[in-house]
Design brief:
By secondary structure, the protein is mainly beta. The protein has two helices and twelve strands, in the order E-E-E-E-E-E-E-E-H-E-E-E-H-E.
Amino acid sequence: SPHLVISQFQAGGTTSSNDEFIEIHNNGSSPVDLMGYRLVYRSDNGSNDVNFMNWPTTTIVAPGQYYLVASTAYTGSGSVPANITYNNTTCQCAMAAAAGGLAIRQGELNTGFVIDAVGWGTGSNIFFETARTTAPGNSNSKKRLQEGCQDTDNNASDFATQTPSAPRNAASTVNACSGGGTTLFA
């Protein structure tokens, strides 16, 4: 399976609840083309995917590379620009800071394979692995341990709060994972 994980996310900032980002990391040893994948969200008790991003054309993420997807309201934490943006108003897809879930899907909304997922708070949507992590709080993020390499399929164990947020993009230092990789989550 592709070795893509959600390595960090911020669900809201102090000046705007739409100041949000999702960082993807390729923790495998081969490049991954994002074409055909999508980044989706579900509210705390949501039962349908909300599409944040899909890639209709070739977009390569090299081994160990990060890729930053952010709202157009993103303030660029630490001056790290997004690789691609989405408009919260147009897609009606603002994340809730208290509870929710994100997933990388291959294929269609609601039915494509879930490659990786993270749930936070106490919601009951399907996007979590074994256990949810706690909510990040405004202008803080939840960051996957070992710089995006840890993936035990337990969100509570794999993520810690990053205060303040420190997103990485495709120009950030590559972090190759030794023996890293994920399995399909379904």
